[in-house]
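tool=predict chain=A
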Amino acid sequence: MRELVFTLDYDPGCNAVADTLAAHPAARIRSLSLHATPESLWRVDHATGPAEALDAIEEAFVTADYYADCLATEHCGATQTTQVLEDTDERLVLYSYWERTPACASVPHIALDHLGEGLLFETHHERRRYTWRLIHSGDGDVRAFFDALEANVGNCADLDIERLTEASSPPETGSTDDGLPPEQEEALRAAVEHGYYETPRDVDVGELAALLDVPRSTLTYRLRRAEAHLAKQQVGAMRSVEGPSTPL
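tool=predict ok
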């Protein structure tokens, strides 16, 4: 399996959601699920931010002249449906379904054309930056995928390729006294010091990644590995104190 991580930085007026997020910099959108066939696309997105930002995000999804995930810059004749699954003062969950036309293009559909089926997608959208993480079998033509993506994006966004690697992240080198590799310990220490684990958080993972000068996906991986390691350590310590369980 191969992993592709890349970003699209949209210019003003090119993407309704990007314009909305730029106007509400405290808001974030991440995909909970994203699937595509050659004829359609459906996804569930989770947005967080102030109430006024969530209202604006919902309006951008529902009332845009063209589907927010389409790379077209004008209406391409696609049929779309957006439904609100959850709406609170702090979060918004949206379901979107899109039936494309020959004039429509999107990242998932271009990936299907050049990388084949069985693809997994994850997205994060902050301000004008749209980050994509794509897992594929390793078959297909990655160069043709990025060439086609760049051609469809045109002058509306800057394409930045952050990582092309095996899907399983390489092992971190060395370890601390707690068994954590230095890279994971650094990520965990920075997360604590900058308030990532406060409620509400003082910093999100994108801001923390910028402070550490690492890709967001890399920081997320390191934090998850560190958290899993410490959780297993804690449970193991609890079991050793409690002693072996007595059979019923």
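The chain has two domains: 2-166, 182-242. Residues 2-166 form one domain.
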